[in-house]
């Protein structure tokens, strides 16, 4: 018996080359069948005609409560946005990760995490910035956390903003990459308002490392002096550096994203960087639904955007074929959306910020259903 059959939706699973009307069936927590006219006994049969059916989304960059006091409520925010897997981007450090490890295991949301090089992670925010002085890196404790909890950890996280690194410049980045090299893990580096140029920052990164907030416009940016994507960005991508759009309140700009997208320099991964400060904050990142609609309307093909929220981050998590796909045998993670007309707008800063710009929003995605391992964890009351 199937747990669930979704009938007649437009199924988009870029990993599998699928974009068309089909049925999806789930049994025993796994995708059991995919194709036209699936029949059989099922506990639930839902008509998804007129809806878009995708693999469960992966928010590759967010901050979750209780890993951070500024974190968003994980299951409530994610499931209502079609997200079944989330990556906490460095809320905890070696002194604080262990106390939250059980939360990661117990949550219905699938959670992975980056470990902050600051021993206490982001615990000091918003009162003061984290301590990223390499002289204070506790390398022994960091190694111990990876040794004990490596299955939950993806790599090391560093914020390179001038406000964080101060007079240290790129020294914390160099030391973080060196430490990551000895651990055999990647680095995620926050680049907003960097202490030097983006080309210099990119030169330190290796294959598998992630530069996040790629379209920010504070300080030196992805663009060169002529308004084109810098040569070093193309070189970094060619050697395997991943570019992530994770926008939050102010880590995104139309001034950088629009020329980059026109040039075809798309994100490898699209995420949110949501916290308690930025979730539900209009007209910025708001949710993964919002991110999908925004980047599509900025000119990236819809199927490519879905890949940036499913198959591509799944690959980075080392879970290709398990999540981010609707192939038979994969985890039974499914999201169902309805595209609805909208008279709202997208923004690159919250309302009231004089530096913000706005763009029209012709449509948005409304989450109708989220299924995690075959269990319905969110359902619109009218679906």
Overview of the structural elements:
This protein is α/β, with parallel strands linked by helices and 383 residues long. The chain has a domain at 57-316: Metal-dependent hydrolases (TIM Barrel, Alpha-Beta Barrel), CATH 3.20.20. 23% of the residues lie in helices and 30% in strands. It has 11 helices and 20 strands. Strands 1, 2, 3, 4, 5, 16, 19 and 20 form an 8-stranded mixed β-sheet that branches. A hairpin with a 4-residue loop joins strand 1 and strand 2 (18-27). Helix 9 packs antiparallel against helix 10. The radius of gyration is 20 Å and the shape is globular. 52% of the residues are buried. The model has no long low-confidence stretch (mean pLDDT 97).
Present the secondary structure layout:
Elements: E1 2-13, E2 18-27, E3 30-35, E4 42-47, E5 52-55, E6 57-62, E7 64-65, E8 72-73, H1 74-79, E9 83-89, H2 101-106, E10 110-116, H3 139-149, E11 153-159, H4 162-165, H5 171-183, E12 187-190, H6 198-203, E13 210-212, H7 231-238, E14 242-246, H8 254-262, E15 269-271, H9 288-297, H10 302-309, H11 311-316, E16 334-341, E17 345-347, E18 358-360, E19 363-372, E20 375-379
Parallel strand pairs: 1-4, 1-5, 6-9, 7-8, 9-10, 10-11, 11-12, 12-13, 13-14, 14-15
Antiparallel strand pairs: 1-2, 2-3, 5-16, 16-19, 17-18, 19-20
Helix pairs in contact: 9-10
